Amino acid sequence: MKHLSVEAIDELRRSARNVVRELGLLNDAYFEIGVTLAERHLLIELTTCQSPTMGEIAECLLIDKSTVSRLISNAVKKGYIECFTDEKDRRKRFLKITEKGKTTLDAFEPIAFNQTKEALLTLTNEEIKTVHKGVALYAKGLKRLRIQNRDDIKHLALQNRANCCAEVGKKIENLLEIYKSLNQMGFTLELFDEKDEVGLYDIYRDVVDSGSQFPYACSSIEEFRRQFLIPKGQVYVCHSLDGEVIGGFYLRANYSGRSSHIANAAYMIRNTYRGKGVGSLLIKASLHLAKNLGLQAMQFNMVLSQNNLAVQIYERLGFNIVGTIPDAVRNTDGSYQNGYVMHRKLNDL
CB 3.0 to 4.6 Å from 259: which of 28, 42, 255, 324, for a disulfide? Predict the structure, then answer.
């Protein structure tokens, strides 16, 4: 086992920070050209790869899809790149650098090249060799760590998936036990009151603006009321002990007439409370509440296929994907994702 002193690690971190600052990477845009560091890397990749997809660019730049989506959106607005759709698969969006993008990159390259050159000229030949070797080795170490972390995450995901599969079929705790679990976590679950509207709308707006959960395009208070409050049904709100609204869901019949025995629900959790198990408890509570109303099944009409966490939770709680709607939801970058119809009977609760 290698021994690394705290001093050595901190010294490397200080040196890395100094490099970032000296290169001007903390500025919003480089020099007077107006291109950001991320945009420059995007343009460089588009000159070396022929019509890559958004996913391929994200993989090359080592950034997540939501970040690359914003990056591409801004680059399109500035006229640096163009997006075009695969005629055979509208979910795929390909990227291409424009003439303006090439001109911008050409204007930047001499500045960046000369900055590096002039900095190296202040060093001796031996120091220059040390810089080359040191930077390359540090990049090598960072890459190894990234791959190791990625493999660890994959292994953990497989374990979680196995645990989820093992939990499918287990009887869901009763409503009293669910309320008790919420209380032990410091939360309550109650029917909606007018005083809850502001807090619940605040969560709704964040969820809609994220684009990761609901297909709604508008996050206005009027749209919130139309989607959550006006339709016939019940709305439940989860509070912290100090009264903060931390989540909630609506519960209603999915259809009318001879199909009115099928329930529908939608859930929201404040971002700071996600990943704590509250969402799963709200889903479980809604299943029991639906059954108590005489409903026989729960159906979700549009679960976004890229919302992997939600799909896993629903499957763990006994839901099945009974249908797939191709290209059901348009993403912010213009690409599409499928929508799942998920269903669960309530007689085995």
Answer: 255
